[in-house]
Amino acid sequence: MTISVVVADDQALVRVGFCGIIAATPGFTVVGQAANGAEAVAVARAARPDVVLMDVRMPVLDGIEATRQITSDAAWADTRVIILTTFDLDEYVFAALRAGASGFLLKDTLPADLLTAIRVVAAGEALLAPSITRLLISEFARTPAQTPARSMPLARSTATRADEVTGLLTERECEVLRLVATGLSNAEIADRLCISPATAKTHVAHLLTKLDARDRVQLVIIAYQAGLAS
Question: DSSP for 23-37?
Answer without folding.
Answer: HTSTTEEEEEEESSH
